[in-house]
Amino acid sequence: MNGGYFDRNLLDPEIAAARFLEVRTRTARLAEPISAEDAQIQTMPDVSPTKWHLAHTTWFFETFILKPFVSDHRPYDERFHYLFNSYYEAEGQRHPRPQRGAITRPNLDEVKAYRAHTERVVLKFLETAADRNDWSEITALVDLGCHHEEQHQELLLTDIKHVLAQNPDWPAYKKDETEPPASSTGRAAGWKEFSGGLMEIGHDGDGFAFDCEGPRHKVYLEDFRLATQLVTNGEYLEFIEDGGYERPEFWLTDGWAMCGAEDWSQPLYWRRNGGRTEFTLHGERPLDPSTPVSHLSLFEADAFAAWAGARLPREEELELAALSGDPESPINDLESGALHPRSAPDGTAIKQLYGDVWEWTQSAYSPYPRFKARPGAVGEYNGKFMCNQYVLKGGSCMTPRGHCRASYRNFFPPHSRWQCVGLRLARD
Questions:
Q1: Fold of 8-165
Q2: What span, in angstroms and rounded, lies between the C-alpha atoms of 293 and 422?
Q3: Out of 151, 198, 278, 373, which residue is the most buried by the measure of CB atoms under 10 Å away?
Q4: Looking at the chain, which residues constitute the CATH 3.90.1580.10 domain(s)?
């Protein structure tokens, strides 16, 4: 119903309301440590202010639930439809993305009031709508809205990290209150072999998925090997010290040009402060050589793979690996509370297929066979971006648990660095 697949448990109005409230509450909790001043800032076009995330995720429910299905609905504020539309052409004009930080009004308190009002109206509507003939369509859109907001929960964190990193003091988003991870020996990654052949990938239709995760279809894979763990800071430091950023033989042409134009010499949040340090949501920390390297562009990941005598995986290879066995537990995702990658646990099994950092692939983000976007604004969700983007798999330490699934297809342009993205090596 939503251009993808939805969780039919939400046909129960109590479950639908509980799911909606759970997601909305988590977003508010993530925004709590962020001051009104911090919530206003936009540090580059790809970053959206926290205030905008809070408003846009509310706009989504007002636009796609209340506006079409509640006959007597009156907009909370007519201005908000223009201010907080993201990219939905079917919904009309919108404020330019690079200028979201210029929206000083409404202020943060007014946006929070907008959220609270919309939540009350949506919950009241869900209490009485279960007998409608279009109830399944409504619950599918509620499901989509919840998953959409969870995507913005991750963006809220990665965006505020970029904002705080522009402050010379590198202030923390919040104090680290999580338990320290289990110790690791820093064992180098091994390799796991996978047999190729004809196989099926894509979402199987059980539970929610975005439309771009299907239809399920067959692909042919050659035999391949995957590294048993993600590339670490220590390994990436060896690449740097071997002149990796100064040797064009490892780089794609566009990447080498970008490296020179942007003066790249290390991952986004590294710096020399006596020794090497790394900025995290908990503030500045000494660089830990055993944790996965993060905040790399595809160009940097691909150059490292070439230097290491390997390559980036295809998205189908990582999906097959994720389906081939049980992922390690616990997963270092948003629910872990770490908000930073952790060292791989000891052992020889393949690790970190979910959580820690998103993994770049060499696969262009393109439609699967028989893919067809839904008509209207909701159909603009994924299909319109299937050009000049690359697929990322697995999820990160800031990804909500339900988004760490084998079929999930995140996507970004190859120059992007502000997301929590690293890499795993592959070989034929």
A1: Four Helix Bundle (Hemerythrin (Met), subunit A) (1.20.120)
A2: 6
A3: 278
A4: 191-427
Query: Each residue of 215-253: b (16+ CB within 10 Å) or e?
Result: eeeebebeebbbbbbbbbbebbbebbeeebbeeeebbbe
Residues 191-427: name the CATH superfamily: paralog of FGE (formylglycine-generating enzyme) (3.90.1580.10)
How is residue 376 written in tokens? Answer: 């209207």
In the block, tokens 């820093």 appear at 186
The model scores a pTM over 0.90: yes
Give the pLDDT of residue 92: 94
Q: Nearest CA to 301 among 416, 184, 401?
A: 416
User: Which residue ranges does the chain devote to CATH 1.20.120?
Assistant: 8-165
- Average pLDDT score over the chain: 93
Q: What tokens does 138 get?
A: 């409504």
Distances 158 to 42, 170, 259, 271, 339 between C-alpha atoms, Å: 12, 14, 22, 18, 10
Q: How confident is the model at residue 186 (pLDDT cuts 50, 70, 90)?
A: low
Residue 427's φ and ψ, nearest 5 degrees, are -140, 150
Mean pLDDT, to the nearest integer, of 233-257? 98
Alpha-carbon distance of 15 to 129, in angstroms, equals 13
* Banded model confidence at residue 183, pLDDT cuts 50, 70, 90: very low
Looking at the DSSP bridge assignments, the partners of residue 411 are 391
147-to-15, 46, 96, 141 alpha-carbon distances in Å: 15, 20, 24, 10
Comparing C-alpha atoms, which of 42, 91, 32, 34 is closest to residue 64? 91
> What's the pLDDT score for residue 343?
95
The percent of residues in the chain predicted with pLDDT above 70, rounded, is 95
Tell me which long-range contacts 10-13 makes (C-beta under 8 A, separation of at least 24).
Answer: 10/139, 10/140, 10/142, 10/143, 11/130, 11/135, 11/136, 11/139, 13/126, 13/127, 13/129, 13/130
Half-sphere exposure of 237 (CA within 13 A, CB side): 16
